[in-house]
Amino acid sequence: MGGDVVRGGGAPGGGVSGSDGGALLGRERETGLLAGALDTVLAGRGGSALVLRGEPGVGKTALLSWAKAAARGRGLLVVEAAGCVGESELAFGAFHQVFWSLFRTATTLPARQRAALECALGVREGPAPGGDFLGASVVSLMVEVARERPLLVVLDDMHWMDESSAAVFAFLQRRVGELPVVIVGAAREEGADARAGAAEIRVGALTSADAEALLRRRRPGLPASVVRSVLAEAAGNPLALLELPVTGLPGLGPAAAGRPAEETPAHRLEGLFRDRVRSLPEEAVHVLLLAALGGHAITQDVEDRTAGRSGAVLSAIEASGLARTDAAGALVFRHPLVRSAVLSFSSPERQRAARRILAGGLAEDDPRRLAHEALAAVLPDAALAGRLEGAARRMAGRGGDAEGAVLMDRAAALSPDLDAYTRRLIWAAVLAARGGRLSHTAALVDELKRRSIPAGLGPLFAYAVVYVDQSHRVDFASSFTLLPQALDELAAVGGEAFEGLTEQIYFKLLLASVYTGDARGWRGLEAHADRVSALARLSRAVWSDPSRTAHGVVQELNRWVEEVSSRREASAAWLLLWTASAVDMADEKLWRRFTGQHAYATQGSIAKARFYRDYLRGRWDSAEACLREAEAAERLGYHCNALLFRHYHAHFLAGRGDEDGLREMEALIGPVAEGAGMRFVTDHLLHLRGLAALAHGRYEEAYLLIERLMRPGELPRQLPWFHLPFFDLVVAAVHTGRRAEAAAHVEAGRAARMEALSGHHAFLLAAAVALVAPDEDADARYRAAYKVPGADGWTFAAARLRLEHGSWLRRRRRAEARDLIRLARAEFERLGAGPWVERCDEELTAADPVGDGDRLTGQERRIALLAAKGLTNKEIGQALRLSPRTVAAHLYKIFPKLGVVSRAALAQALAED
Predict the structure, then answer these.
(1) pLDDT tens across 601-644, in order?
(2) Tens digits of per-residue pLDDT, 159-171?
(3) For residues 346 and 289, is the Cβ–Cβ distance under 8 A?
(4) Phi, psi for 185 (deg, rounded to 5)
(5) Contacts made by residues 385-391, CB under 8 angstroms, sequence distance 24+
(6) In this structure, are residues 705 and 662 in contact, taking their beta carbons and an 8 Å threshold?
(7) Spatial contact of 280 and 317, defined as CB atoms under 8 Å apart
(8) Are 252 and 322 a contacting pair, CB within 8 Å?
(9) Number of helical H runs and strand E runs in the chain
């Protein structure tokens, strides 16, 4: 494993960062983090995932080598894979490198899980494994292997890994905390490979002192003037420090040979390697080109048959320092930049000739052979195009949509017939979208818009156009023109380009309707409801008007989760996730159902559901990961997902009362959402502003904000998440003396039978009932709310209810008030919700009856704190359920006790008190 032909490594021995007795010079921080991860998994405290990110030559592979040695020294099992430019279009290529050897040793896997892995590994014919098998099978395999000793998975050059493997590894990175496994990867700064599942370790340049120490250690005897020039040219890049003295000194210096001074060390190194390639004999360059293009597939037999494995050629290659021969007799490049240098040196004609040789060494049905033949072809070739299309469909059938898209794109380019070209290009666009290459899909769609679409392909083309418009361009206009027309056409012809197309088009229309509230979308959904599955109709019902149409959805949804077949999971995944999210039921059981649906489109939907669930369930430490997902989605071209991830991050900010952060996030996503007509986002932001105001005790402001979404006593249509502002409006109304409005709103919730929608709806209704209950019933109502099944799982809402209950008890001088408030305070503190912690502290202070002639009572201190924040007597009274006259009377006593004569001096006096 990992010793394959063109393994992208660092220096021989893995020491480009400077190594001496196992230590890497200048990398104490990085090795400390890696060692900590290894020690943690050994101690049985869970696994972790880390990715080393930095420019080429900075020493990422050296750190991976250090991690492997450290892991083996600690007794961990080590497996590894390396991305390769020559195999980045081979579905599950890197996956095979890691899991093939583990799979061969597994003995306890259930038969169906073994079959799922065999399909992904390409050793069994058949369709892509179902969603409830591939991910679960991978996890089961790792658990079995790690039963005797923990496992280290090393992933080098992740930026060149195939999409299918990268998506599986991203899934494992998210789940690794549950496993006795450490995953450590390495990727370049500019790579779009990040899937936000791993913590990043930025590997930067060495300090000046460390750079000089490394240079003098590895290149002793250099004159001082040369050392200075090398240090200036290398800019702390370890590989450059070691290579520049070897290349020769006349070219050193930032302005030498007319080279731009701002050129990076990586660019300079590639130029130096290219110069070395140029100096080699023709036969040696030929062998290096075969290795550069062939990836792990190139064999010694190919090289022997293609003129070149003479001792003189190998000696010339090894003497150049560009590559070496490993124990198996295969060529290993000095560094991935060498491969880049070989390719940039070789003309297109020379590369095509090399690909023809490589193709001749592979089996007829090998997709790599087809890829080489396609890249070697110059003229259209109908037969080759047909073979490429067949390979693309087989690859997509295994779950390799992204890689299948590449082959289908090449099949289109080689098609002599215009209709065949257009048909294959449409399919390439669809596969690229499903496989996470959305920017490429957008380019293909732009080209297709200039062409005539063949008969029968209109719905598929509409699907591709809308996919790009929604996900990439954040534009929903085409959804309401193209999708209803596509549904009409599919109904007329009675067939689909692929199974589930009608359902996915219907889902896209539902998505656009929910996000925008556009009446055209809802009309289209209703018109075509009889042509889709009961699940699709259920999803429409639960999102269109849940307070009136979603009763019993929990039982229906559970039945669908259990009964949906493996064959239909790809088309049902989004509908199930989306339906469950409407009633806050998207949980681990459902996510596990779709762990095998590894394409970004599905995993992105899962990630959004997870973060929303984390917010509701009090797992707020995932807030930063939510932002990382947004950045990853942005890099992948999923700009709508990036916006939605930031919108979910805004929930964490509002819950914590971070109004500055919320304002920044709203300024970032608000204009985009408004421009796209995304009421789903803009309405949420309005509610979140109200929630943040509640955190700071500004109840009047909160009421006026939330009232813009829903008036007291009304549960508006097309506000599917009404239950969240429902509870907050009741809170704000009670605290501002609008008890009649609060009671009317609670009665509307009762009339709508909110408790029959979901456990979360039931809890929020019970909490609201407690808030408006008369004194003689209130305590019992609060306690009844705690007993709603699953109540404690809604962590933030439950803590808020305890604070309200504790405050109610405190005002009635009940002894248990302090215990409830302390429970709420502990939860708020764990969540990082500072303003809510302060609210609890104020209540606890007010609950303290101690006071004398010179000291403030608890109630007086609480009033003083609110007055110091700038609240008026009326606002203080609303917050504490007191009349403005009572507040004024308290302030009359507070001022002389603190020795002040104005509100402006209260804050300083309280700090000194």
Answers:
(1) 566 777 888 899 999 999 999 999 899 889 888 887 899 999 99
(2) 888 877 887 887 7
(3) yes
(4) -120, 170
(5) 385/411, 385/412, 385/414, 385/415, 385/416, 385/420, 385/424, 386/411, 388/414, 389/424, 389/427, 391/367
(6) no
(7) yes
(8) no
(9) 46, 9
